[in-house]
Amino acid sequence: MLFNILGVTCGYGASPVLKDVNVQINSQDFVGIVGPNGSGKSTLLRTISRVLKPTHGKVLLDEKDIYQMSGAEVAQKMAVVSQEQGLDFPFTVKDVVMMGRIPHLKRFAREGSRDFAAVARAMDLTDTAVLADRQVTELSGGEKQRVLLARALAQEPQILLLDEPTSYLDINYQIEIMELLVRMRRDYGLTIIAVLHDLNLASRFSDYLLVMKKGCVHAVGTPHQVITIPMIKDVYGCEVRVECSSSERPYMVFNAETKPAAGGSARRVHVVGGGGSGVQIFRNLLNAGWQISSGVVNVGDSDWQEACRLGIRVIEAPPFCPVGADEAALNKEMMQKAEFIILAGIPFGTGNLRNLETVLEEAERGARVIVVDNIDINERDYTGGQAALLYQKLLQSGVQTVNSEWEAMQLMEGSAGNAI
Length: 420
Known about the structure:
α13 (353-365) packs parallel to α14. This protein has two domains: 3-246, P-loop containing nucleotide triphosphate hydrolases (Rossmann fold, 3-Layer(aba) Sandwich); 268-413, Rossmann fold, CATH 3.40.50. It has helices spanning 41-48, 71-75, 93-98, 113-125, 141-154, 171-188, 199-205, 223-226, 229-236, 279-287, 302-310, 325-337, 353-365, 386-395, 405-413, and strands at 3-11, 16-25, 30-34, 56-61, 64-65, 78-81, 159-163, 191-195, 208-213, 216-221, 240-243, 251-254, 268-272, 291-298, 313-317, 340-343, 369-372, 400-402. The longest helix has 18 residues, at 171-188. The strands form four sheets. A six-stranded mixed β-sheet has the order 6-7-8-3-9-10, sandwiched between helices. It has a six-stranded parallel β-sheet with strand order 15-14-13-16-17-18, with helices on both faces. It has a four-stranded antiparallel β-sheet with strand order 2-1-4-5, with helices on one face. By secondary structure, it is α/β, with parallel strands linked by helices. Mean pLDDT is 87; it is low at 256-264.
């Protein structure tokens, strides 16, 4: 056992945030700490990292009380990556990573060969060597996070503590950072304890999940043991679906509670979007009682994420792949089941041109198509003119055009009782 947290109670004032917390963590585990806002996740991490001393209880590291160990001794065993990045000064990347060697240097000592070797290994693993001479203030969020991980790794710790390492990052960077943590644990034998906001990311990458609720440990176990419908209802207060196969980690999808239109079942609409263009209209249509389908969008796209979160039927293509014949056929099938088709004001490239072709085919067949014509097609045509030709043909086919997704919904709502 590496960490033994015994009856810890602590907080920031008179009222405790953590209440009699007991947790055991073994060496080389990847533990995700999850829970709603204010549940005590970050407070627990600060207590483990020797920042916030308990008012009651003990935190034992290798059977030693961490608050009776020297700061240098703790720093040689444990590295912390907090939410506050502290990268506001124009240091070079290699200088920032070298800061991870401070716990190993005697006062006024200069870096030696071992220090340079540790920094080189850390930058190699985190793919930051190519950034070595750049100033950290010039980096993107994902690059900065990799630099912080490199600095922590250069510290040569046994334990890595992270407070929401994927916050404010796009989904591609979130996955990149989590996969990097898995490699660091595998290649260096690290124990990783991370506060994570996204339950699906936590389930996918953690060995064990520690669920916090109102300052107490609500549940501890593997993702299969913890990610359950009753747990999420109890801790987060929301209804979800939990899906997984025997070979996969569980993941959750928010239920979409569709309110039937007056006097009958929910009316159907198919949204052709991508890149976030469908997000707001999904929410507005669900609130208005419409039954929604969407596609074709790539897995990982903003519209795909929101559709999955809301429980909307989405026709998907693999990441960075063009729309294939099978996806296009299914897209057409869903369009033909819908009362309306909405084409959002999206850019067109060779990857999603097939979506535009399918909308045109359905418009010529007589489907009720609403086109959000808010940006000149020539400014969003990346197909050498093919998309512009198809788009002009679409506009000439008798579709209705609007200036915004909101106007599209208003037009549909105004047609109540006129369904074909």
